[in-house]
Amino acid sequence: MNRALTAAFAASLLFAAAVSASAETLEATWTFVPGGGSTTTVATWEQDSEPTPAGYVTGEATVVPIWDFVAYQPVGSLAAIFYYTSSFIPVTFSTAPLGGVYFAGPQAYVGSEAAPQFAPGSLSGLFQGELPSTLTFTVVPEASTWAMMLAGFAGVAALSFRVRRRALIG
Fold first, then answer.
1. What is the torsional sign of CA 55, 61, 66, 69?
2. What is the DSSP secondary-structure string of 8-31?
């Protein structure tokens, strides 16, 4: 029985290491609550946690490439998102120096505009300067992480079956 627990513990450690090592892709989810109603998902997209910006203005904003953009409201199709720093929040969409769709509110990244670093978590602010919104980043596990996790579960199941079989025979 101790072997099974040891194997399960080792498998969980491998899984935890794999997940933390592969935190390269983040899924962003933009939600808001219209007029006191229920939470509405407006858009989702994926981006790197340490992207190479498509453009930036020091002290103001960074432009981050995104993919798998899905809009649930009429936002349009996007290949990049504009993140403004907390010290520079455009008053209106038309006066934003970089234009486009943007998140303005609490700063979504650490580091400079030229080398932003995003981390899992949630931010509340104004998206496009108008909608009180929440922007949530979650880690998207890579395929190798899923493969390692499945192999670990298969190993634990095989070991469990073997221990059970020995207990019935002996």
1. negative
2. HHHHHHHHHHHHHHTTTEEEEEEE
**Cα separation values, 16 from 4, 24, 130, Å:** 18, 15, 39
Contact by Cβ (8 Å): 53, 64: yes
143: tokens are 């395929």
pTM: 0.65
Per-position pLDDT tens, the chain of length 170: 566 556 555 555 555 555 444 448 999 998 887 777 788 888 899 999 999 999 999 988 899 999 998 887 666 678 888 888 877 766 655 555 544 566 766 788 999 999 999 999 998 876 655 667 888 999 987 666 666 777 777 777 777 777 676 767 76
State how far the Cα of 6 lies from the Cα of 55, in Å rounded to an integer: 49
